[in-house]
Design brief:
Strand content: under 5%
Number of domains: 1
Radius of gyration: 15 Å
Structural class: mainly alpha
Largest sheet: none
Order of helices and strands: HHHH
Bound molecules: iron/sulfur cluster
Helix content: 40-55%
């Protein structure tokens, strides 16, 4: 499963989505397996490719919105993206409860 995802990483992105950022991806031409390291393997190399990527923010946002569960997207691991999703969900919940209270 992860292998298939790695092969198709940016190619699989939904065509109906705004994906012009994909054209500027710094990982174009880089071995996609680098972005889907085995469990416990280093993510350093992938993250260093992302660090220099002009569309890091767009890539990260795409992965978060689509719940990408595997790989390095926007310079972040699945665990780091999960943390962002949790923080956003908590923040939305707090905002909702604040607006109901006022
Ligand atoms: S942030 Fe990383 S994974 Fe995303 S497009 Fe750029 S280089 Fe590729």
């Amino acid at each position: 499963m992860e292998m298939m995802r790695a092969e198709n990483m940016l190619q699989d992105i939904d065509d109906t989505e705004e994906v012009s950022w994909k054209l500027q991806a710094n990982c174009a031409g880089v071995d996609p397996d680098l972005f889907f390291p085995e469990r416990g393997a280093s993510t350093k190399e992938a993250k260093s490719v992302c660090r220099a990527c002009l569309v890091k923010a767009e890539c990260l946002e795409y992965a978060i919105r689509h719940g990408e569960k595997f790989g390095i997207w926007g310079g972040m691991s699945e665990r780091e993206r999960r943390r962002i999703r949790r923080t956003r969900a908590l923040s939305m919940k707090q905002r909702a409860s604040t607006s109901v209270a006022s």
